[in-house]
Design goal:
The chain is of the alpha+beta class and 210 residues long. It is 58% helix and 18% strand. The chain contains 8 helices and 4 strands, in the order ββββαααααααα. A 4-stranded antiparallel β-sheet has the order 1-2-3-4, covered by helices on one side. A hairpin with a 4-residue loop joins β3 and β4. α4 crosses α7.
């Protein structure tokens, strides 16, 4: 098998995940890129390197190499290879399918807020800077279009809490990316305020619908 293929995925939630692609010549040679894949919208965004995906990828595809080594040892030293290979295969499988699979409860809640707001549930910190800027600018343009105020200072509106429940989701999402692009204590504080208010807004709507 020769080509570039998806070996591993992690941070899976609602058909969206971080995927690592490998260049493969029968076995993986090296990772060629990390992407956040949104299968709901057939979209891909460049992600920061995911070391855990790389470890999982190499562990899964180390099986044929280990088998060849064991064949050599069996031929030269008469080593009982099958019990060793079975134990190794089980260990690799357990590691690959349980390492870095589950999200924390807080991480899942936060991603669901982003998905409800802009359909993309990647946390901004998953993505590289250029993708963060592109998505932030897209959200801000969408926000200005929605409010029909193309000259507004959206960051000032955040600082003065000049938003309503209808614009809150877009302010929340935009601020989520802004606090990663420009990492200041003020941006982080404003993001946490928006996140808590947006989460509370969703809870209130849920209870009122019951």
């Amino acid at each position: 098998m020769i080509g570039i293929i998806d070996i591993t995925a992690s941070k899976k939630l609602n058909q969206q995940a971080i995927v690592t692609k490998f260049l493969v010549f029968a076995i993986p040679v090296f990772p060629t890129g990390h992407y956040f894949i949104d299968r709901n919208n057939s979209a891909a965004y460049k992600a920061k390197p995911c070391k855990k995906n790389v470890l999982k990828g190499y562990s899964l595809t180390s099986l044929p190499i280990v088998f060849l080594v064991l064949l050599y040892l069996w031929d030269v030293f008469n080593v009982p290879i099958f019990p060793i290979f079975i134990i190794y295969g089980v260990a690799v499988s357990i590691f690959a399918f349980n390492y870095n699979i589950d999200l924390t409860a807080e991480e899942e809640k936060e991603r669901l807020l982003f998905q409800k707001s802009i359909t993309l549930n990647a946390l901004p910190e998953y993505l590289i800077l250029s993708e963060q800027i592109k998505i932030r600018d897209f959200i801000v343009t969408k926000l200005k279009t929605y409010l029909r105020d193309y000259d507004m200072d959206w960051l000032k509106n955040v600082q003065t809490a000049n938003y309503d429940s209808f614009s809150l989701p877009l302010y929340f999402a935009a601020m989520g990316y802004e606090k990663e692009i420009n990492k200041t204590a003020e941006n982080l504080e404003n993001y946490n305020i928006l996140k808590n208010r947006y989460a509370e807004e969703i809870r209130n709507k849920h209870f009122s619908a019951i």
